[in-house]
Fold this protein.
Amino acid sequence: MLVSAALGLLALFFFFPMIWMVLSSFKTNASIFSTPFAPPTSVDFARWSEAWEVGNIGQYAINSTITTLVSVTAILLLGAGAAFAFSRYRFRGRGAFMALFALGLLLPLQSYFIAQSTLFTQLDITDTRLALIIPYTAMGLPLAVYLLKVYLDALPEELFDAARIDGAGDWRVFRELALPLLRPGLATVAIFSALSAWNEFLLALLYIQDDALKTIPTGLLAFSTRYVTDYSLLFAALSIVTIPMIVIYVVFNRQIVEGITAGSVK
Amino acid sequence: MKPTRAISPYLFLAPALAVFGLAVLLPMVLTIGYSFTEWNGFGAMTFVGLDNYATAIGDPTFRDSFIHVVLYIVATLFLEVLVGLGLAGLVHMRPGRLWFRVAIFTPVMLPMVVVAVLWSFVYNPDFGLVNAGLAAVGLEELQRVWLGDTSTALLAVSLVSGWVFAGFYMMIFYAAFRQIPSEAVEAARLDGAGEWALFSRIKVPMIRSVVWVTVLLCVTGGFQGFDLFFVLTNGGPYGATEIPTTYLVKTVFRNGDVGYGSAMAVILTAIVLGVGLVYARIQARGRRVDPA
């Protein structure tokens, strides 16, 4: 009984800022100020559609979706390829290449982002989608290679020998045997990489100035400086960004928790 | 397995290595190179040896930024790891409460910018939840401009960090608790151990290695924190929340001092890697002494 009460209170404490955010998005700026705790008098989504259209949130969401989808697809394909090579073949330089990816697991972003930005400026890819897709892919690869290699290592060698006896070449073994068997591992990697790409902020801030290409984090920041005192509009924008994430979490909570914790406690 | 063609393994590896090399490895090497130069990012580059490192060591802002980040890390060890451990203990007593885990884990899923903008409203001096809440219970004299007051800003940012990551650590500990064989817990229960004794003497010691990993995550992650600080205070008020990452972003991208910023980045990287290696060392030694 006591434990249940404690759980309830804690959940309320953690959730309250988000409830307050949604309720405030239905209120006028004046009533946000005068009665911060009072519920709205009516549920009106006018400010939500205003934020979506006028505030460009729709465009930011499209940009985030494209960047995330392309990066995650690239991480899965390239990561699976490298993991397959490391797990199934013995070749010259294997140890050294694996060490490079292992280093990538530890390196903080700060160790490379300064030169990365000068490099991208010289290559003239800042203010294009590539400026985010390339680093997001690169940052996701070490973990993808590591996790997928663990999955592949657990598969029995006989499986691959049998495919080989049936006459399958290297590419066919990878595409028709390894990739399908890797599916659970790919799902874990996809969830973790998708959340990181969706939420990434620093590189997006540095590389994308063009408002039409901004992703949700930097777009929302631009939005909040543009409408700095229009609180109900800002609360509406925050709600639009937050609620889909809650829905996604409720639906896929087991996979998401597995993906995030596996990704962090490597 | 033998490759059908000797070149196959390299073909599988090449695309990943190319992207990783271009976007991470090459820039990392270049950053180390830049740290020995004076350069504004596009003009002439002058080699200055170790000057930037000497400047960094004597730079009071840089030194203070480390004090701030260490205070922040200490605060988050309590607000994230310890609170997360406690929450996991509570949830483990009453498993199956999905709504509870949703409520506490949701902030982890949100972009930090969203969290930061939301909390800038929670801390808003005029209508924010904190000050309004204090007024509601008659404690107006405790009201503050939480993010604008040098004595509270760092703690206010740490609290937001706790709000986000306590749920993250809770899920890690909860997963670990569920791996504990139930006989161990049941045996202790039969011996008359209460819930607190079960938690502190049985459950937590049994997931000790996980606790150590999370401490490492919290410390190394803390040094790399940026988003919350940038949006909530960007180092202010009066430098009270300046941390190494915000300072080096200003140095490079506002003042155009690529060389000096790179030297600070190298120092920060060395610290993060150093903490990780020392930690791995201690862990390895612990494992030799105590095979459990």
